[in-house]
């Protein structure tokens, strides 16, 4: 044992030397120029290595893949900076350096992303004291402004059902809309109603007003459409007991309705949505560095630290992340629990989705401008990096637009913006892109499929460029906008207004492709490889823009209430007084789907009863038959009393295990399958554009005939 201890001590002593040697080796590998054949050989060796590593489970193979990806990235960066920027004309210099700057942004985000996601913490809930008398007091805030009562009711009922001592729990409906209907509902539901005379600072001001008139030790905050499970407080509050310096615990934002991408392309529960990467991986990675931040809902904040920083931040429109940044600057800790403990409604239309993202982008740019995490006191290095990457993410608008238009520089104007041959570009850029894609697929595969990030950015890039730029120049510009929830898409339609920038970019890339084809067919080029390379680039752009147009084709929403799978025992009470044991298939705010063991003659509109259990207690609900097909029975719950509605929420949305399998049924990413998905989306987008154009033309002809007659 003494020999082993001595060996360990010697290795530890050599650690600094080994790190220096590794850094020097990496520097040599990244900066050594190679001819075309040598660079392709390096690519082949690294590709074989990552293809083997991606099949080996564990953290070490993932870290090794990251290291190899960084090697290929740094080789490409060095080559781009030293071999390709000797450009001939002032215009080529200008355009070439714009492209280089856009690429530099992607390199920075890639490297910071690896830092964020290298080792997700996967924190587990801490236990509460055995004696509930020792548990602290909690105020539950449910802010609302203009949302319909049907959206707010389930959240309030679920909050009433939280497993917490009743004498230590107070629920507050914070109504910035000052609506008598909402006040009457709060009184009927047995919760506190708070309002104020103005709407200053929007949601942040609403919460800060409530802070001034309530006394709970902790504040649990839920957007009015986020329905908490009964276990929310018992899952989150133990962290505060275990760590007295913990000021905030955040849980995921999960959505039981499809967002515009999922609904319009029918990928709901088949492909991870836009938020899955952040709540499934990035926040967990931030948590390792004590950089998990507040997301505005589904979180608990300790009152004393919040009062110390002056309440919820009001200087920016992303008050949540800014509040967490202030807490971290004061030396407080935060925690992230990846277990879903609440679920809400996603944005219904692409227009509202874009509006929400514009607010996020503008707010992050504001924070980056007025309270930059790289500057100032109180943050550790990796906290600064995690916050900076979160904010830099929303500056992708300009780089993405550069990538979507750059092929035109050569195809239309004949400008050389990268001074090298097409073969050398391919030899350096392909290793960087391919290895990074395979590595990210390994890291993110459960939470985002390959090439979907490019689709999301292509959809949003045009719309976030101006807000982020203006917020960076003048962070006081702009105002808070509320994201509409609870609406319904009545008919299929292409949103031509939203699609205008996509159509413009689409037309430009089509023109570029046409010019490229002309150059090849007419033999007017001495660089056919460069023409082909730029045509391939333009074709990729067309796929992304086609997908963007496809998302803008809003699909009709058949149901107001969204069905959520649930398999639990139930009892059906038939009209003749007999009972039938069965199982639930799904539930919604409006009813239940039941799977019957035998055929039962029940017609639409017949009255039945359904019994569901919550622990040892059983609840009875009156219902009417909505459909009965092949032992699949759908029932609607109508005219339920407030107490019965609360019980139904407890048995469905409020169950402790309601969202425990939220990722289990989604397939992991395979890069080629992700590419196939995006190609199909682009193709569908072009078909939808064609159909919408024909419909618009036919409608115009009908209007013309009508006027003539």
Portion in beta strands: 5-15%
Please give the oligomerization state of what you see. single chain
Strand order of the largest sheet: 3-2-1-4-8-6-9
Radius of gyration: 28 Å
CATH-defined fold name of the domain at 132-348: Spore Coat Polysaccharide Biosynthesis Protein SpsA, Chain A
* Biggest sheet details: 7 strands, mixed
CATH superfamily of the domain at 132-348: Spore Coat Polysaccharide Biosynthesis Protein SpsA, Chain A
Q: Which class do the helix and strand fractions yield?
A: alpha+beta
The coarse silhouette is: globular
The CATH class assignment of the domain at 132-348 is Alpha Beta
Average pLDDT for all residues:
90
Provide a descriptive summary of the structure in words.
With 709 residues, the chain is α+β, with helices and mostly antiparallel strands. Among the domains are: 132-348, Alpha-Beta Complex (Spore Coat Polysaccharide Biosynthesis Protein SpsA, Chain A), CATH 3.90.550.10; 567-651, Thrombin, subunit H, CATH 2.40.10.220. Helices cover 52% and strands 13% of the residues. The protein contains 23 helices and 19 strands. The strands form 4 sheets. The chain has a 7-stranded mixed beta sheet with strand order 3-2-1-4-8-6-9, sandwiched between helices. β15 and β16 form a beta hairpin. The longest helix has 38 residues, at 671-708. It starts with a helix and ends with a helix. The model has no long low-confidence stretch (mean pLDDT 90).
SSE diagram, text form:
Elements: H1 2-31, H2 36-53, H3 59-83, H4 90-117, E1 138-144, H5 149-160, E2 169-175, H6 180-189, E3 192-194, H7 202-213, E4 218-221, E5 227-228, H8 232-236, H9 238-242, E6 246-250, E7 254-255, H10 260-264, H11 276-288, E8 299-302, H12 303-308, H13 319-329, E9 333-336, E10 342-344, H14 350-370, H15 381-392, H16 397-405, H17 407-411, H18 422-444, H19 452-473, E11 493-494, H20 496-522, H21 528-551, E12 553-554, E13 564-565, E14 569-573, E15 579-587, E16 591-595, E17 607-614, E18 617-629, E19 632-636, H22 642-651, H23 671-708
Parallel strand pairs: 1-2, 1-4, 2-3, 6-9, 7-10
Antiparallel strand pairs: 4-8, 5-10, 6-8, 11-12, 13-15, 14-15, 14-17, 15-16, 16-19, 17-18, 18-19
Helix pairs in contact: 1-3, 2-3, 2-18, 3-4, 3-18, 4-11, 4-15, 4-16, 5-6, 5-22, 14-15, 14-19, 16-19, 19-21, 20-21, 21-23
Transmembrane segments: 63-81, 93-115, 390-412, 418-439, 451-473, 502-522, 534-552
Catalytic activity: [(1->4)-beta-D-glucosyl](n) + UDP-alpha-D-glucose = [(1->4)-beta-D-glucosyl](n+1) + UDP + H(+)
GO cellular component, one term: plasma membrane
